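Structure, all two chains, one model.
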Amino acid sequence: MSSSDMIRIENLVKRYQDLVALDHLTLSIQEGEIFGLLGPNGSGKTTAINCMLALLKYDKGSITVFGRNMQPDSYDIKKQIGVVMQNVAVFEQMSVQENIDYFCGLYIRDKAKRQSLVEEAIAFTGLTDYRKMRPKKLSGGLLRRLNIACGIVHKPRLIIMDEPTVAVDPQSRNKILEGIVELNRQGSTIIYTSHYMDEVEQICSRIAIIDHGRVLATGTTEELKQMIKTGETITIEAIELDDTLLAAVRGLPHVFDLTYEDRILKIRLSTARHNLVRILNFLKEHDISFGRVFSELPTLNDVFLEITGKELRD
Amino acid sequence: MLHLFKYRFLQIIRDYSAMFWALAFPIILGTLFYLSFGHVGLEATGDSAWDVIKVAVLREDTSSENARAFESYLAMMEEEMLDIQDISKETEALDALNEEEIAGIYYIREEPSLTVAKNGLNESILTSLLESYNQNAAMFRKIAMTHPENLPNAVAALEDYRQATEEVSLAGKDLNPNVQYFFALVAYACLSGTFLGVKSSLDGQANLTALGARRSITPTHKLTLILIDMSVLFVIHFFNILILCLYITRVLGISLGDDIGALLLVDFMGSMIGVCMGIAIGCLTRMSLGMKMGISVLFTLFPGFLAGLMFGNMKNIIELRCPIINRINPAAVLSDAFYCMGIYNDTERFTRCLLILALMCICLLTVAFLGIRRERYDSI
């Protein structure tokens, strides 16, 4: 923990009767980061966010935001936070512009300043052509963008985004991700929760992997990948192998795991030079025919798999 | 704050389902009342003339004492309630009845009787006149048989009652019983502000709606948000009630009283009690939305029923059996305020009604405040 922490969570425990939602969760988030909270559904990401925002009571631990204890009446702190909730939270009866203006008004009193911020938020989220439309008429992606506009319109110092791309088409998703990076460039610190590892990998400067309410690992994408044994995954399609050959592959240097299913061989190897060449030479020596071959560097899913023993989406 | 007020106002008036129950439904209900009563005598807070009912009276036996008494009774009702046609033969009377020229035929005999051709308000009135006579006659006969010495006292008591009844009709206004349905309707409409209140308070509760969570994490104090919501709701609902009263008085032509100031005051308090009740129910944090809406239905329709919305005489029955219910039922208090204002001109009772309503508002707001005071939730 350093003194420049924007948010510091220590030993946070939250129970729902017998269920431990947060189990001594400890985190620190520094100014200027896009901090990713990565975990499967039910891992405790949203609970952690709600505790951070002083919406939820917790049983144990402490939360400081901007160096101060976060309480329900910490209005000075709340002024500097923008939140994009997991569920779209807008008024159905008001237009896009009215919604953004309403939420801006909860933070900014000055009318002229508010008008300019609303225009900026509309332009930033690409909602200019839809400003007069009611939320019911918007597509899922546009609705998410409206949700984001309402959360960021007051240009907060800290933005908390709780799975903002759930049920969004790929095109809108990319736009949203680009927007988040841009917000960070403009000076906002961002906490981003998701169970989509590719998103987190794409935009987050630091990531915490969370499961069963506990932080399992924290670091940059590279740091996390270095924490695990897998250095490379080689996939070979349309290959015929018997048990003897499979055992032989398993015995090759740096191979520590493999799966063979539906004539697809997946070999996981530790980091080493010429892994692919070694495998291909083995196949040639044994005169084994095969289809396509892929070599992939480890992903966050591999990290998650190794740390938790299960896939992220399980 | 004006900014938040403006948007909340727009949001609520565009919530068509909530506005339907708060505004359109009472208007529709009022129209149905008007149509079902056939608008007979609904202008009965007195200024308009009562349409007397045309009847035939056939004298079959004028020798018995009871027949003579009944004849006198009908004569007494002539002009006030009845228009006795000059028909003496039964066949002519039956023809007139079939042609709907008259509403009924009274037979003067030892045991007086009535013949009507259909069910309707006029026919009901004719029946109740006969029943009223029979009841009084039976009472006198019983007293004459058991305690003849008390007969003069009984007659005197009845005279006193008649006199007292006449004194209740103040300011030259006689009450048509059907107008009380409209008083109960306005009272019910006031309470239907509950639905607006419940829906609105949900938008402030993080454990029930995403909007509630979203609004709870802004730097605007929760109490400020609630007060803004309440002001907006009150303004909207007050206008809803004014629109309903205008519709009843101007379109349906039913007078709710002449004192506009007093009418506005009752509407004001009525709107306030409806909105406060909704906010109080909405702020009961542990209940689901469905449960809250169920309670709202109960807290609007049931008081309305007790105040006479479905059965006109209900309020009077309760007044006789358990008057405290009429003191704590906001719909009954509102309805009573309308009576005091439109019929009785009873300022003291009118003031008491308003004070009771004000006290209820304070209690409901206290409940609401206690409900939202806790700003952190156990679960969301």
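The interface with chain A takes residues 3-4, 7, 10-12, 14-15, 206, 209-211, 213-221, 375-380 of chain B (CB under 8 Å).
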